[in-house]
Amino acid sequence: MAYVDNGVTATKGNPLLGKKVWYFIQSTQAPVGSKALLPALQTDGSTSIEGDSIDEQTKFGRIVMPSTNEDSIKLKTYVVPGDLAIDVIKDAKHNGNQVKVWRVIVDKRFATQEKDDSDPAKTHQVFPAMFGYGVVDSLDLDDGDDLVSADYTLNILDKLKEGTFPLTDDQLAVLEEMYEFERPGQSSGNFGTDDATK
Question: At the top level of its lineage, which domain of life is listed (predicted)?
Fold first, then answer.
């Protein structure tokens, strides 16, 4: 046998932080043109790429073949007044509807530019994403002594699809900041409870 050395490929760098992976959802009942919802105060998110395999023994050896896709997304958030995401999940579970879900890597190192179909001279910043239609497996609201949390699992129809998700720098700034600078006397009340959040 002839000697073959095809070399190796190595990747170095800082790893992706979990806080740079955001999950967005949308009701399948939302009208065309509706915005995606970013569930408030996401604490945990996990994506499972799973499925069954056919595994049989024969006289001539073992046969292993892919059989099904069983992808799922599990999210945990804290409940915040005005967060419509919990209502979307609850409504979908109670009424047998599906939920659209996106897993987006919101890290500038992964961002690329896409051309605008309506104006080829323009480009838009996009981030890698996976998308799927999910069926709500369960919604657990934990009303313990601490913060009220919501825990839910979406079982994905077929499998998660690869694509991109557009986010401008202005949108990122708004989503990453809890509140903006203000001058004395511009608002009144505590942040999160009164007019200061409006």
Answer: Bacteria
Q: How far is CA 24 from CA 19, 32, 130, 131, 180, in A?
A: 14, 16, 10, 9, 22
pLDDT tens per residue across span 135-166: 999 999 999 888 999 999 999 999 999 999 99
Distances 152 to 32, 76, 95, 181 between C-alpha atoms, Å: 25, 7, 16, 34
Q: How many CA atoms lie within 13 A of 183 on its CB side?
A: 0
Domain ranges of the chain: 18-53+71-179
Selection from 43, 28, 19, 38 nearest residue 150 by Cα = 43
Per residue in 72-116, pLDDT tens? 999 999 998 889 999 999 999 999 999 999 999 999 999 999 988
